[in-house]
Amino acid sequence: QVQLVESGGGLVQAGGSLRLSCAASGRPFSSYAMGWFRQAPGKEREFVVTISGSGQGTFYADSVKGRFTISRDNAKNTVALQMNSLKPEDTAVYYCAAKRTPYSGHYYSTERYYDYWGQGTQVTVSS
To answer: What's the first-to-final CA gap in the chain, in angstroms?
Structure first.
């Protein structure tokens, strides 16, 4: 079983930045497409961004495109989410997820396709 641990959440003012990290167990890390999802109070969990196992393919939700950037370091078994120009509506618990796949160029934006989930890290953006 792959274990995922998120870190880097916190409180930031609107317009500020945060960098989230997700550390993963399991080898090889490149065998997993990775994704970030978020869930605000009273709302369904929603897709944020995904990255393929190779790191060559990415796909962003329209709500964060141009502000958030996903990256991965397969040598360190980590994936990061750089969040810039944060808005109050970005406030949510952010979850890291992994989907095992033999296709290094594939990525997934559908929540139900993911196999493993972290516990989440809280991001709060104040006005």
So the answer is: 40
Question: What one-character DSSP code corresponds to residue 17?
Answer: -
Tokens of 127: 């006005």
Distances (CA, A) of 109 to 47, 48, 97, 112: 6, 8, 11, 9
The per-residue pLDDT for 14 is 98
Backbone conformation region of residue 30, classed left if phi is above 0, alpha if psi is from -120 to 50, else beta:
alpha
Distance, CA of 98 to CA of 15 (rounded, Å): 29
pLDDT at 28: 77
Note the pLDDT of residue 77: 94
| List of residues 6+ apart from 112 with CB closer than 8 A | none
Cβ atoms of 126 and 117 closer than 8 Å: no
Which pair of tokens denotes residue 70?
Answer: 């996903």
Which residues fall within 8 angstroms of residue 81, CB to CB, at 6 or more apart? 19, 20, 21, 22, 36, 48, 49, 68, 69, 70, 94
